[in-house]
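Before going further, learn to read the protein records used in this course. The integers have meaning only within a learned vocabulary of local backbone shapes. To see the layout at work, look at the sequence and tokens printed below.
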Amino acid sequence: MPAPTNPKKRALMASTRLRKTLRAAGHHLSPVVQVGKEGVTEAVLRQLDDALGTHELVKVKIGTETPEDRFEAADRLGAETGAQVAQILGRTILVYRRHPEKPRYEAAPARPAAEAPERPTRARATKRTSARKSTAARAKPTRGAGRSGPRTRTR
């Protein structure tokens, strides 16, 4: 894939089906990590690392008083935590790092056939058990059926 021509796009992961899935899942998330007036500090990186270990997909809010540009902050957050930036939308950054044991958004690596447990096969039913209703039971009642007299309107 050729390098993006826009220098602001360099922080984003490649446009794939995974990225679209992450953006859709991240839409409903609330920001877990916030970058304040000190910028991206060691404490922010530790907090993001813990959040990525727990949630796998984290929204980071960049404050307006942050000395770094939002794209520089996204570069640092992705590079220093070993994560990928899935989206930069305004001052909100969506960061993703695959969970080592139980990934939610990517398929787990395939196990060799020797390790995969065998599943028992189920016998399939040959006859249908549902009976058809008679045509009289399926017929819809007429429009006026069920009323005992003329319909009156009260105000």
Remarks:
- DSSP finds four helices and four strands in the chain.
- The chain has a mean pLDDT of 79.
